[in-house]
Protein 1
Amino acid sequence: MEHAEILQKVGEIVIDFFKLNGFVCDESTAAADISAWNSFSHLPLISKIEEAFSLRFSFVEVTDFQTLGDIVDCIAQKTSAV
Amino acid sequence: MLKKLTILLLLVMAAAFALDYLLYFGLSHNLNLKASYAGQGKVRAEALVLGPCEPLFTIDPDYLEKKLSCPVYNLSLNHSDFADNYLHFYLFLKSNPAPKMLLLYVTPESFDLRFNTFHAYRFAPFLADSIVSATIGELDSNYAPWIRLPLLRYTYFGRMLLFPALQGLKHWNSGKQKPYLSKGYEQHRPAVSPFFDPARKSDSLLFDVQLDEFGNTPEDAADKTFIWNATRETYFVKIMDLARTKGVQVIVYESPGFSGILRTQRNRLAFLQKIDSLCNSKGSAYWCFDHLATCGARANFISPLMMKSAASQNFMDTLSLRINKLK
Amino acid sequence: MLLEALYFVFFLALSLLFYYRSKYPLHVLFFASLLFIAYLQWCAILLLLGNAFFAFYWGRLISTSAKHKQVLFVLGLSILLFELVIFKVLLLEDGAWRGSATPTLMLTLGLSFYALQHMAYLFDIKIGRIKPEEKAGYYILSAAYFPKLLCGPVITYQNAKKALFSAPIFKLENLVSGANRFAFGAFKKLVLADRLAPMSAAVFEGSYPLHGFTALFGGLLFTLQVYFDFSGYIDMALGISRMFGINLPENFALPLRATSITHFWRRWHITLMQWLSAYVYYPFSYYFRKSALWSAFFGIVLTLFFSAFWHGIGLTFLLWGVCHMLYLSIELLAQHRQIKIPKALGWFLTLVTVSFANVFFRAADLQVVYKLTTDIFSFNTFWPHNWLAGFVAVIGKGGELNDLFNCALAALLVLLFLLFEGKLNAKANSDKFSVSWLFSFLLLIAVLGVFSDGEQFIYARF
């Protein structure tokens, strides 16, 4: 999958998950930019992304994610390796 | 940078010295502080009453004056020990004519460190006096290092001294002549606790935690053995010595206490004997009134050693009779 | 206190001088830290060094072991936890709120804080997030570094490494901004916290029945006191650290302005919450991430349970934890159902509920908890009928004019401070030498500070 394609898909999941109509995501979008994105919602969101791409993130990966870009990079790495 | 630092240091020093003087000025002009009022040299008394809260709340100079036919001033201070009393007596004598007699309230409690204490903050405006500073050095080792620091020597006790200093400035500004307690006697107030008590709904604005309960503090509890303290003894003797050098006759007395409590004090008798022999050696009279009928009735008392006003008037009658006989 | 302050200034000046002049600045920091602990309590050094050595070698052991990583990690963690439990139990005997510095407390100086660092270190090595430190000295220094030793901030080894081990470059701005921050913290501690201390103590240590409002207000007073006490310490610690050119993480972000409990926990004792979230909440919730609600709920329960235990073993702390569990769960449910309330109401509710929970936190034992909750929930006597006698005289410890003056002064200082806190915080971090700033704070401390019977730092108890 292309990088931009992953970003778009992840962005859609995020917008859908937090019900943010009209919000525009890019690589630098971080938890701080979305008020509902906190420790309580971080893992359920990750779980949604895992489902959508049918892959698993490790614990270290999950806790090291800072921005959407990080997540996209990680997915790109995992999907290209397959 | 260096210039700014110098400016800062100079400013801080200047402010410290200025505020130091302001606080000193305020405190020494506060007429409600007995030491400061005495320092103005306006008290004329032939009989001086000295001791902790018991004489403060029970010996009314206006009443006693009629019986003794001479001016009386009450120099007692709440919760004070002999060192407190000694310094106040000393500061009083420094600026006022010596009285003819000193009525000094003493009980076995006075020699036990668990009762009352020394209040160094009361002497903050008198630190320049060597006797005052030496006493503080001996009795309050925490405060002693601070007494040479400008400003901090007052603000160390800020919670006790800031308000009196401001009040003193007001007294000075308004030219006030008489203190709130004009003869030093503080009439005790209706017994209302600041704490909520469903059984006693009072809306009085007057309250005092100390006075509302009978024996509610552990120190007041019955059944105790006193412990003699040598420092207390030293300052007790100092008061008598100071009085002797000024030709003041000392009458050491113990006002009636509730016999239900006095009875349970295990070594009371031994203490009374010790006090008696100390007084004898210094040529002071020692009168104890624990045999009066007043002692028997609980209704006469607010707390074990504190009489209600009717009972204390009776006591003052008895006391003045004895003093007049002595004359 | 006067002598201690003078010693400390002298100690700090010498440490700074040697730190910037020496060829071995880290050695200077290390010895300064040991000296600092030794002055407080000799034996605490042994415990500190023992723990640091243990974590250092155990970390290596975990990383080199091929098969038994998990076993070794669990064993190491259990040893550290067990030690924490032992000392918390010993502290229980001393009574958290009675007496000042008990022998056990002095012995375990900073243990609660450095134990967290060691646990995190072992965990991070086990999951492969970091490699074990090669040099024992570095690791020990990161645990012993004196500005953060007594009450935090809590840091992980990787943060400590970034902050501590760069070559010192002397900058005048660092000294200036450190001093600005230090003066600000000293003001919070000596003026605000210590003026509030006797007022909250009057509510928590009296045996008389109180009006419900007065009892609840005691919780608010304690909340304010602990905030000024702890954040004042943090300001001083960060200020001193900045003088060495070392930036420690912030621990508070205007928590009293939080508009919800979730919000509050993101601004209060931040480094502990980050630790808890990274090492308790996330590892647990990771396995339950499929169910949004349950993972969060169980995560909250476990996190607050650990947090309560960290503050002290005892039912009072547990009750405090349970309160916050309830608050957070309710908020989570409300969020789930998309219920929203106005910000002002949220702020008010947060302050009241946090204060209420702190009644349990501050209470010396269950008897006090029972007494105060009975007071608070006796609704027909909730409001004092005589405010002067039933409220001011209680927290002022008497109803004389002087007591009224002290209450009013404390109220005025606290309100003004909280009103301008955002601006003041910004100025406290400035690296400009401001004569007016330092002059004002030095003078405020000198005039309004409590020197005669100030309290030790509350968070040094935990």
Note: The mean pLDDT of chain C is 90.
Protein 2
Amino acid sequence: MGRQVAITSAGFSEHASKRSDVSMPELVNEAIEDCLTKVPSVELDDIDAFVNGNMPAFEGSNLPELWMTDWMGARNKPLMRITTGGTTGGSVAIGGYYTVTAELPGIDTVLAVAFEQQSQGDTSVGLASVAYGEISILNSLGISYGQLNRLLSGGAAIGVAAYQATNYMSKSKITEEDLARVVVQNRRNAAKTWWAHLKMPDLTIEDVLDTPYIQYPLRYGMVCPASDGAVAMLFTTEEKAKDMCDIPVYVNGVASVANETAVLGYDGSGSAQVDPSAQIGAMKSAELAYSQAGISFPRKEIDYAEVYAPFPNQELMWDEKLGLFEETTAPEMYETGVTARDGELPVNCSGGVNSTNAIGASAMERPAVAALQIMGKASNQVPKTVHTSIGSGWGGSLNFITLMVMSDEPKRKWK
Amino acid sequence: MDKVGIVGYNQVKLYSDANYGRYEMIFEAVRGALDNAGLKKKDITTVISATNDYYDGRTISNCFTVEVGGGYLADESKVEMDGAHAMLYGLMRILSGNHKLAVVWGGSMPSCYPYHSARLYETDPTWERPNAYVNDVTASGFQMRAYMDKYDIGAEYIANIAVKNRKNAAKNPLALEEAQNSNITVDEVLNSDAYSDPVTELMVAQPCDGVAAVLLAPERQALKITDKPVWISGVGWNQDTYYIGERDLSTCTSMELAAKQAYDMANINDAKNDIDVAELHEAYAHEEMIFTECLGLAEKGEARKLNTSIGGDLPINPSGGAMGGKPPCATGLIRVIEAVKQIRGEAGDYQVDGVNRAVATGQIGMCAQNNIVWVLEGGGE
Amino acid sequence: MTEKVIEKNKGLVKADFAFWVGLYMDKFYDGFEQKKIMANKCPECGSVFVPPRKICGKCRIKLPIDENWIELGDKGKLINFTRTAYKVSDRRARKSKSLKDYGMVQIEGSDTAIVYPLIDFEENDLKMGTEVKIQWKENPSGGPSDIEGFVKL
């Protein structure tokens, strides 16, 4: 049951804080165009089905896939929409995989697209409801809204991430400098990625530490930007993939697991978690996806990783939770250059979410870049040959993790 | 396609103002489906939900349903469409071999949000939305007129569908109370207030609160779980172009293409004879006629001649259909559940005799822009 | 059973949105300022689009931004109509007492139809095929409400 799936291409739109030159469907169309240029034998007509997703509340358009049908080339074609908040892109990519692997008659080649045009709305307002947890339950717990605002969260994603950061820092005993180092690596990498948003080729740790705090320990210079952008990925069967490109990238493991509860304070949602850096969902996702892919030693078997992390502390934390490094050792890996472009295990050579964050697209840009690194077509290509790579996504309130494991060899060879 | 069975189902009673929490409703639906199949939370490996951020009035609407929907530490995702589309993703996950039991649930509470305004957010914000001349209300009027005009059909035929469905709903204990009416007449429907002319208020499926859930399992597991699995023998889904001014609203191309895809998969050549009962997600009475034709159950323009009552040639919506209550994100899934009930002989007062193969549909968008068609079969193995 | 009363929610989250229309719609709305309808045409199937767009959905090809533009007149014919009392806006939907007519009109020379109110229509004017003309706002500002509606020719 379930056939082998391959990725044959991935494409991006130009990302920026404002893409006022395009409407939302035109933005999506740009990414599709870039995706299909890389596979000359494939035309829009050859796509059998589409998967689409973004974070709808951020730009004020409900079910925008209906409106952008023609811009995707999806008129009179099967289309499914998947949205899961911050992980939307990852979930859409996983949806693309499942659409192909299900082996439904006539559905071989699937185009998955994810996007966000955040300049159209107010992302922080949209996120407030997530950060605060299940607001309607608060009254019954005797907590007033004002109290919540003062005590628990500085607002939106950064509010909850700050708590996660302090939790992680107390475990790993790292300093703010370690956080800044991650940012420097990302922004310098972004400078070499054509579609990235925050390009800072000369950024230094001092520069980052010179910026003011938003909420301790996160400084202005450490947080992701809000971007407009789109990404597209092409999934197809093993047989068809060989005709489309030189190095098909096989999808060998996927997972999207959450450990989230509706009630604040019960190891649950938003800013009230007991330890938001515990990440049981991430570990379970990794366990599932690696076992599907036949990976027993992630630290040895994975050559490249794109880890979804808007904030530097998260990149360190998830590197560990996804099994790339031992617990609390990630900061050291950044210091010694293991994660650099020419390192042993390069991480986020695209600059990551820390440099470019079109929310709905971000979690798909991770597997997209990780796949291109295997193909040797990435914008900031690593010098070594990449055989196996991963791309993750983060969403929900804090604990929803998507993961895709890709390789240049199909799954069956390992079994 | 490998065989996948529907092994359990549950739907909560529909209310126009449910007066209990959204999460309790989801829990009731999902827990009921597990009980229906004799399974436990730990048996779930994947959960697919269908909700909508605008309908729920919050960003990432699936984020707080993880526990109540059975998704805690399970591999989960959300399809932001009709519940019937979520089942498509559930099917794919089972077919992948990665999962042995999928929970699919969908639903929302329109008593908590302005339904038409949320639907307005679906329109092109750079062209139609600022004026709001195109919205779900006016679109229904254009659609019904296009159909009537094309085939020269009087409004009384369409009112007739509303009468049939509202009478059927009266036999369905889970249907919306406001929609149940065993004495309704064609005149009453025609003389009710104008909704969007020629559509009248009683021709409209009323949005209401509700959640539904089904369980899917591969053949081997399905046969262990239940004596009466219902097999998925075909599925098709398709999307039309967006602007209603560019579509032929007298028909529904996406429904035709989805039906073709599903019938090819299920080896159906003569839908009219091969299908015993149909449960359609008709947002308005006229959509039932359009869909009946697009599904090949009647020739174009001839749906009015078909006897679709419970004892008729081809019963359509014996449960009352969406007219018996239309909880957004659940309606299509309820159609699937009703088809399953018919095949298993569990439909009570509205049971159709001798059902072995049924069709169920779901839709989203203005004038049913995106449709999904399911072909379901009984037979034990 | 006594009814439980929950403290009234005083907090309200409001989010406002503004949408980029893109270069194609930009040109379209620039035309509105001069009371002109700018359409674009697919070189392959010949379809003429109002409003103009980057992609022909039927042929699945790109229509370049500086080619295939056509200026259309303000006449058209009614191809569908409806009458409703519902008023739908971003914030709420309500039902007023008076009914309003809306028409789907195909502008002469185009292959698409647009929806606007029908102004001063008598009951028996509401027929498929009725010839109509755009009624422009006196001082158009380059937005979708520059067209007030359609009047009978």
Note: Residues 156-172 of chain A form the longest helix (17 residues).
